[in-house]
Sequence to fold (391 residues):
Amino acid sequence: MLNLPNHLEEEILSMIPFSSMRAVRLTCKKWNTLFKSRSFTTMHIGKQEAEAERESGESRMVVMTDHNVCLTSVVTVNEHEKPSTKPLGKLTCLDNEHVKISQVFHCDGLLLCVLKDDITRFVVWNPYLGQTRWIEARYFHRMNKYKYAIGYEDRKSCRSYKILRFRDDSDYYVHYPYNKNHLSLYDSYDFESNLWRTHYLRDPLTLAFCDRGVSLKGNTYWCATNGLGEISHTVCFDFASESFGGIKDLPFSVPFDDKERVALSCVRDEKLSVLVQSMQTSVIDIWITDNIEEEKVLWSKFLRVDLGPLNGLRISNGCFFIDEEKKVVMVINKDRKERLDTLKIFGKDGFSELELGEPSDKKCWPVMCSYVPSLVQVKLPEGGTRNRQRD
Fold:
């Protein structure tokens, strides 16, 4: 093995199933270092995922229902067979089995989990490796709501992962649209330095962010309002510069109120997709970007769905998933009448529905996001678990 070229050694080791990777890492320092390289990670994960999809026709995603996070696959083989869900395991790598999660965000195989009953800390989690890292909040106020995001800065040697947190005033903006929502400061946390930093905006952003942000290529995007109280563009947070910017026009402009639902999602960490649902009609429209990194983003219509008798469907906090190859859209929904969390699947071959179960907490809205396994390490920082702070 010592005489093999590096690229051939990587090729051979990438074929080993993940269940045997621990033994590979413990064999020698060279293989342990190889395990952490981005090229090997991309090759190994890509092969494992391609094999899984080819054999089963499944789409993997993270689903949160009743404050529990689970890894689930939805199998859509062909138009003649009804789709089905296959649980891949409840993500209970946490120390306390009774921990309840209120929000979950995905980036590069890492999950940022915000707790329901503990606002003093949150946890970052790699379910593929079974590693967790608890992070203490810099400060908190029980009356305030916060928005969160996780992303990374690409560096020559590695990716530097970071967390964003800022106060969420969107509910106030909806009820009092003439009172401007000023985002003037926000906090970021750096995994490597184990530091919180506070950032002040010289020119506060006068806008409202809609629901959840989605991570794409290390940055996070939100749908946001213009000065007229309409949802008309996206705003990006760049984790490299730790700043807001990158405003891109949406293919529509709708009022920011309870009559319209707008949501973002990402497609294989390559494209953005956006969904708009009018609560007054039975139509859902979905678009996909071509290349979000260009100055002018072009949106193409992916699917239009007439819900018909399902016009009471209310998409939960912008949770939907797209399988571009199969032309399938999945949306997660809380059916208040039946008291069930359900997964609605729309495609060119029609509509189907899967029950996810009856939650014990009726106020817990289900959440769904795409998931790609990752070999990113999230071990505790050197010198202990306590987070240092810095202005």
